[in-house]
Each structure stands twice: as structure tokens, then as C-alpha cells.
Design goal:
There is one protein chain. With 334 residues, this protein is mainly alpha-helical. The protein has 13 helices and 4 strands. It has a two-stranded antiparallel ribbon with strand order 1-4. The two termini are 19 Å apart.
């Protein structure tokens, strides 16, 4: 195993990423054998629709976990962003671009709140994120009076353009000759590259990861640890707001009181991808591969006729295995 890890190309790409890609390939082959309908372009598009918003959530929480923190509010906050901005769009006939910006700003507000409480008020991340989760659920329900909110459909010639961010319908010679282009994948990868640059190539990213390794040492070196710890949550809030846009771009309808399961899936994707729950180590590329595995698992389980409950069980087991591997690897290093 150590010999494989030391191969130059393996070291450059990352042993964990190669293993995850092999796991994804095996999963695809397994589901393809179990269900003929799984080998279908529409199935791939459906899995990608799920991967987009989950990817942005996972990218955001990667920054938070990198500091040694955690955020269990990202799913409900995403729904709150989508519901509040969507309700304002429906009731006030505002431009859709304005409400998209509003969705991101709501995410930033929650990110600032969580970051301030953790960094400056020393509230444990677990406690404040659980509180924010309840606030997001309650605020969305109160704002809409527990009513479902619908964003504009693709057929809306004025406001439906935002759905092209997720998938673009290329019409051929006949109305039935339609090719769906997954534009959301391009957007997700662009944002992932930006996140990777910020996390690995900038002072901000290095300080965020150093906080997870040894916060006291960073503080003693003269760095404003509170500022960078809060900044990680703010970045997470921005990405949660973007996730809300891609969720409604894929599914249109949003219901209050939901979003809990996406916390676990986003965290599972990040941890599976090589981000350490103890902080100090994070991999944006690994997070994206982890997201694709979760999305593939979700679509595959539905394709073979099982309920979504099975996905929850498998996702939970993935988290346990990923954390166990992280603990073992850290013990070996120590």
C-alpha cells in the first residue's frame, strides 16, 4: 500500500481521490447491472441535478470543518434562502436576478451569525449550528405561513431563464428533439476551482486550515484567529445561498421545515473526500468526488426500486467508515 502511495502520479493526484474514483466506477457498474434503466442519459442528468446543490453545500462545509468546526444548519438554511427569496419573488413581482442575490445574502447573514457566535462569543459550533437550524426552519415557516413556495418554471419567458444555470435545453429540428446540457456541472466545477485556489493558494485558506491544526499556535504567531474562523462560516453561508439557487433551478418547489438530511450528506461527502473532522486537512477535489458518489448512490438506489431510506443507511455507514479511516491515519502520523 505504501508503495502505491509513493508513485509520483499517485502522490500528485492523491491516493484517496483515486480510490474514490474506483469506488464510483464500481458503484456505477453495479447499479447498471442491477437496473437497465440506470444506463440512461436522463438518469445521469437526474443524478447531476442532485449533485449541484449538494456540491455547493459540501464545498461550504469543507471550509468550516477545516477550522475544526461543524455546521449542521446548512440544509435548513438553504431551504430558508430559497423559500424567503422565492416568496418575495412571487408576491412582489421582482426581477429573478434580484431574488437570487437575496438568497445568497440570506445565506451570508446566517454565515455571519454562526461565525460570530463561534469565533467571538466562543459558543461551540455544534450548539450554534443546531440553533441556526431551528431558526432557519422557523423563519421559513413563519414567513410563508407554512405554505409551499414555487419558483418560476422553465416555460416562463421572463423569469425562467435562471434554470439554464442548472440545465440548458437545446432544441433540435423538432420539438421532441431536445438535448439537455448539464450547465450546472460547469458552474459547480468553476466554483470548486475557485474554492481550491482560496483554500490552498491564499493566506486566508492557509490560516483557516492552520486553525484546525493548532489554533493556539496560530494565535501566538500574531494572526487574528477570530477573523479567519468567522470568515470560514461566511464563505460557507455564501455557498449555501448559491446552493439554494441551484436547488430551485433543479426542482422549482420548496417546502418549509425540510433540509436536515442534506446536512449529513454534505458532511459525508466532505469527510469521504479527505477532509478531516478534527480540522487542519481539507480537499476540495475529494469533496466533489464524494458528492458525485452520494448523488450516484441516491439515483442508483431509486433505479433498482428501493426507497430513499436505504440511501440514508448507506450514507451513515459511509460517514462511520470515513471517520474511522481519518482517525487511523492520524494515529499513524502521530
Amino acid at each position: 500500500m505504501d508503495t502505491l502511495r509513493n508513485i509520483p502520479i499517485v502522490k500528485k493526484i492523491g491516493f484517496n481521490k483515486i480510490v474514490l474514483c474506483l469506488v464510483m466506477a464500481v458503484m456505477y457498474g453495479m447499479f447498471a447491472n442491477l437496473s437497465e434503466s440506470f444506463v440512461n442519459y436522463n438518469r445521469i442528468i437526474s443524478a447531476l441535478n442532485y449533485a449541484y446543490f449538494l456540491g455547493f453545500l459540501a464545498l461550504g462545509v469543507t471550509f468550516v470543518i477545516g477550522t475544526g468546526g461543524i455546521d449542521f444548519s446548512i440544509g435548513p438554511v438553504m431551504f430558508c434562502c430559497a423559500i424567503v427569496s422565492g416568496q418575495i419573488l412571487a408576491k412582489n413581482n421582482l426581477p429573478v436576478w434580484f431574488c437570487m442575490i437575496l438568497a445568497v445574502l440570506i445565506g451570508v447573514v446566517f454565515g455571519c451569525f454562526n461565525g460570530f457566535m463561534v469565533a467571538y462569543c466562543k459558543v461551540p459550533p455544534f450548539i450554534i449550528s443546531m440553533a441556526s437550524m431551528q431558526i432557519a426552519k422557523g423563519a421559513a415557516s413563519v414567513f410563508t405561513k407554512t405554505q409551499t413556495v414555487k419558483w418560476p418554471m422553465a416555460t416562463d419567458k421572463v423569469n425562467g431563464w435562471y434554470r439554464n444555470l442548472v440545465k440548458y435545453r437545446l432544441v433540435g429540428d423538432t420539438p421532441r428533439d431536445v438535448t439537455i446540457i448539464p450547465t450546472g456541472l460547469i458552474c459547480l466545477l468553476i466554483v470548486a476551482v475557485i474554492c481550491a485556489i482560496v483554500l490552498n493558494k491564499t493566506k486566508t485558506g492557509r490560516y483557516i486550515l492552520c486553525l484546525g491544526s493548532n489554533k493556539e499556535a496560530v494565535r501566538l504567531s500574531g494572526v487574528n484567529v477570530k477573523k479567519y474562523e468567522m470568515l470560514a462560516y461566511v464563505i460557507c453561508g455564501i455557498l449555501v445561498g448559491i446552493a439554494a439557487i441551484f436547488f430551485v433551478g433543479a426542482y422549482t418547489t420548496v417546502q418549509p421545515g425540510m433540509g436536515d438530511q442534506y446536512n449529513n450528506e454534505a458532511i459525508a461527502a466532505a469527510v469521504m473526500g479527505g477532509t478531516s473532522m478534527a480540522g487542519g486537512i481539507a480537499s476540495i477535489g475529494g469533496t466533489i468526488i464524494g458528492v458525485m458518489i452520494i448523488a450516484l448512490l441516491q439515483e442508483g438506489i431509486l433505479a433498482i426500486g428501493l426507497t430513499k431510506d436505504y440511501q440514508l443507511v448507506v450514507t451513515g455507514l459511509i460517514v462511520i467508515v470515513a471517520v474511522a479511516i481519518d482517525i487511523i491515519s492520524r494515529r499513524k502520523k502521530n
